[in-house]
């Protein structure tokens, strides 16, 4: 095996890729000739994992030489990531790819994610996938909110995903027993470093709101809410009130979506696939819906197209898919609407978190803390953010809506 000049982690050795190749080819006689490894995404773009893109050259059948590109995802639960171990991210993602998705794909007659070629927990939890870019699917800029055409595709696909999971649970009631914890666990919420980070983001939102004309009463409510904000977010996420149960993707935001387009030059999407199934949770569909709406959608779409997306794109697809699967008790739109409302506080938590995360990314965490702790530097720091105007507009809309729903009241 000839390796590239880029350093290959010790565990990603020839034996590892030989195993991947066997699964990829579905035959035992392949041989790895060369490995080229690079980082698969930028720093901070993937939750508690390390992503590599690997191009391999291989030979088989004595003389045939070919190449392939794979995505390798490793999850080292050490240091700051130890708090996530009890969430069983690797176990859930592995089970999703090898046990759940094949069933959902079959029921919905579509493809929900990339092909998975190999999984191992030795020495580090690692999964190997196909590279969706080779299928001419692409991601959008993680800092640009999604427009109506993309949202319509996402909600239609999400409805099929949820419907197929409902059918699977009807056929096998215990199939989702390992999916009771999602991206957030009680330990995750209670961990000191996480509580501090969540709280600082809420405090920054308060400071911005206090300086926004017409939002004085909302800012006061937020100050009163501050001591119980994190606990309320956890209790809402962990809510068992909903009557509907689906397999939620659990981390459905624009960075975990790949889109297919009419052509390489087109911006009109025709299909989407989901990636990163580590946060899947069997709970109400309001988790996925609120999270996506509050982290990924353009403000004008939230204001003017919310009902259209939920009724026409999501619910009508959900109903149609369930009817085609002969599901016994198809929920009404009122049932779905009630579940979405049930998780609205989690939606608020997600909106504030994603908005402030964008601010931190644009300013750096040091400048974020500087603005939070130094009144004189606050406005200067906030206005340094290239997307400051859009950031403020989103926060204002989210908080006004939250207030109208009574989410800020004690």
Automatic annotation (TrEMBL):
Checking SUPFAM superfamilies in the record gives: Protein kinase-like (PK-like)
Q: Which InterPro entries does the entry mention?
A: CHK_kinase-like, EcKL, Kinase-like_dom_sf
- Where is each CHK kinase-like domain found? 127-324
Matching Pfam families: EcKL (PF02958)
- Know the name of this protein? CHK kinase-like domain-containing protein
Q: What organism, scientifically named, is this protein from?
A: Hermetia illucens
